[in-house]
């Protein structure tokens, strides 16, 4: 068994290690035993996904896991996230204005 995922490590690496430990072909029971590879915060996420939404397919759970825990990859500090969003909004607005003015 691989180390448990805390939410701070590389989620892709965790999935790679875990799938190698259990076999290359996804099995239906992976959805239910995946929780044993998670620490508290990721476990809470899993319980919400599994119990509340009734996720039963490995591919769906895997995709949601990757999307959920990859949100800070581009930022050194969580404080940078709002600035990144602001920059993206204003960049998009400026591009829209330039596009409209060309016509």
Q: Overview of this structure, please?
A:
This protein is mainly alpha-helical. It folds into 2 domains: 1-71, no CATH class; 75-103. It has 5 helices and no strands. The protein has helices spanning 11-22, 30-33, 40-52, 58-69, 80-102. 12% of the residues are buried. The mean pLDDT is 77.
Tally of DSSP β-strands: 0
Query: How helix-rich are the residues, as a percent range?
Result: 55-70%
How far apart are the termini? 60 Å
Beta-strand content estimate: under 5%
The figure for the number of domains is 2
Oligomer: single chain
Quickly count the helices. 5
Mind describing the biggest β-sheet? none
Q: Please state the overall shape, judged from the principal axes of the Cα atoms.
A: elongated
Radius of gyration: 19 Å
- Secondary-structure element pattern, one letter each: HHHHH
Mean pLDDT: 77
In short:
The chain is mainly alpha-helical.
Descriptors for this entry?
5 helices, 62% helix, 103 residues, mainly alpha, single chain
Strands, helices and their partners?
Elements: H1 11-22, H2 30-33, H3 40-52, H4 58-69, H5 80-102
